[in-house]
Amino acid sequence: MPPYLITTTTTITVKQLVGRTAVTIAITIEKMSGLLSSSPVPLEPRKAPHVLTIAGSDSGGGAGIQADLKTIEAFGCYGTSVLTGLTAQNTKGVQAVHAVPSDFVIQQLQSVIEDEPPIAVKLGMLTSASTIRALASYLPKLDCTTVLDPVIISTSGHHLLPEDAVEALYDLFPYVTFLTPNIPEAIRLSRTNTKETELKGLADMLQLAKDTQLKTGAKTVLLKGGHGKVSREDVLQYAGQYEIVWEEGDEEADTVDVLTEYRSTLGLKVEKDLVVDILVTGEEVVALFVGRKVDSSSTHGTGCTLSSAIASAYATRRKKDVPAGKDIEVFKRAISYTQSAIASAFSFGHGHGPLNHAHLTARRALPPPTKHNPHPFLTHLIQSNLPLWKSYVRHPFVVQLGNGTLPRECFEHYIKQDYHYLKHYARAHALGAYKANTLAEIQAFSEIALHVARESEMHVAYCAQFGISRAELAATAESSPCAAYARYVVDIGTQGDILDVYMAVASCLVGYGEVGLWLKKQVEEGNAVLEGNLYKKWMEDYCGAEFLAAVNRGIENLERRVAEDPPSPEKLARLTAIWHECVRLESRFWDMGLNLIH
Ligand SMILES: Cc1ncc(COP(=O)(O)O)c(N)n1
C-alpha cells in the first residue's frame, strides 16, 4: 500500500489501548421470574467464595498475606487471614521475623472457621515447627481443599523457616491437596541429592516433580519451573505424551516479526527460553503449562500470588465434576493471572519489586511498556486475534509475490486499486489533523497527509513500470473491496475521536512492515526470490531500512500515546474492534488482487 511511507519522517501517534477485561453479568431465570411474579421468591443473599490464607505478614506489601488477599480479591472471592508471623520486610530484604505463638494461630483459625468455613485454604510462611504441627492436627477436622506454598527461603535469600520446621512439614503434607514448590524447594523436599545446576532440561524436571509428589505424599504437585530454562524443542518432544497448555498466543508468538525485529533494533534481548510448570497428580503427569520467561525483577511474592490464585481459581471453578488435581482450567487461570501480574508490574522500592495484582481491573488492564515488552498495546492488538492477523500478513498474494509466481494482472489490479486507497488514506490523516487537539498532533497528521498526497505521484511513476498510465489509473473504477476498506477508515475518522483515527490507519502501516520483514526473511531462507522477480522494486521498498524505520516510529508513537493516556476497558474494546476490522479489510484487499475482484 503506502510507498509514500518510505520517505515518511513524520511521527504517528496513537492513544492508549489494552488488556483484557471481561465483565459477565449473570441473571438466573429463577431470580428473574421471582422478580416478575406476584409473590416474589426471596433472593438468595449473594455470596463470594470464602478463601482463607494462613501465612505471614510482609510489611512491604508484596508477599505474604498482603499478596494473598489482593489475589483472592482479584478472583472475586472473599479473603480471610490467619497470621503465623510478622516480618519487618521491604523489597530489599527481610530485616526481622516475629513468630505468632502457635496456640494463637489456632485461635485465629477457630474464630474464622466457626463463623464461615472456607472453600479453600492457602498456606504460606508457617514460621515455626510448633505452628506446623498444630496445623497438621487441626487440618483433618477442617476437611477442605488446601494449597501449600512451601516458603523456606525468601527471594532476597532470607531463611523464613527454621530447619526443624522444614522437617515438620512432612506431618502436614498428607493434608495438602496442592503443593506448589519451585525447583530449589522441590529438590529439598524430595530429598534428592541433585543440585539445581545438574538439572538438564525437561526430562529431569519431570522426574523431580514426580519424586516430590512421591516423597511428600501431597495429592497434587505443581512444580514451578521459573528457575529452569527449557527450549521450545524440548517441550515439543512431549507433544503426544502429555497435555501441553501454551500461554495465550505464545505458540505462535515468534511469528510476529515486526515486534521481534523492532525489539532487536532497540538492542533488547528477545527471550526465547520457556518456563514450564509441571502438574503431577497420583504419580501421573497431568499437564505441562508453557509460557515465555518474563525478564523482570518484579517477582517478589510470585509464589504467594500463584498459590492464592490456585486456591481462588479452585473456589470459583466451573467443572465441579472433574477431580481437583486434573482440573487444568484451575491451574491455567492461576498461572495466567500470575504471569500477567509480573508482566504488568509497576516499579516500587529498590529491590525485587511487587507484582501488579490489579491488572484485571479497569485502568491497569493494559500492561505498561517494560524492558521485556516495550510494545504492550501492539502485542495486545496482534495477539487478540492471531489467525486474523496471519490471514493478512501471510496472505497467498504476499507468498506468490515473494516467489514471483503472482500473475501480472493480479498485481496490476492491486496496484491500481492501491492508488485509489491512497487518496482515502490521505483524507483519513486530514481528518486526524482536524480532530487533533494539540498543535504537535495537528502537524503530525497534516505532514502525513501531505506525504501521502506527494507520494501518490511516486505511485503513479511506480505504476508506469507496469505499463499503467496516469489516465488509466484515474479512469479505473474503484473496486468494492477497496471502497469498503477506504470508506470504513474515513467513516471511523468521521464519527470517532482522534484515537479511533489513529487506530484506523495503524494496521496498514504495521502490516506492511510485517510483510516487508517476512519477505526479507523468505529471500534469505531461499523461499522467495528477489533477482529476476517482477515485483523486485515493490519488495525492496517494503524490506528497506527507510520504510522499516517509519514503521518503528509509528509503533513507538502509538505505544507512547497509549501509555500516556490509558483507555477505559470499553474504549479498549472499541479500539481492538477497529483494528480487527481494518485487518480483515486489508486481507480482503489482497483477495481482491488475487481473484481480480472488481
Ligand atoms: C511473609 C512472607 N511470605 C512469603 C514470602 C516469600 O516470598 P518471596 O519468595 O517472593 O520473597 C516472604 N518474603 N514473606
Automatic annotation (TrEMBL):
Gene Ontology terms: biological process: thiamine biosynthetic process
Pfam assignment, any one: TENA_THI-4
Gene Ontology molecular function: hydroxymethylpyrimidine kinase activity; phosphomethylpyrimidine kinase activity; thiaminase activity
Organism of this sequence: Kwoniella shandongensis
Domain Pyridoxamine kinase/Phosphomethylpyrimidine kinase residues, every copy: 58-242, 270-356
Domain called Thiaminase-2/PQQC: residue spans: 387-595
GO terms under cellular component: cytosol
Residues annotated as transmembrane: none
Name of the featured protein: Phosphomethylpyrimidine kinase
Keyword Glycoprotein set for record: no
Entry keywords, A to Z: Kinase, Transferase
Phylogenetic lineage: Eukaryota, Fungi, Dikarya, Basidiomycota, Agaricomycotina
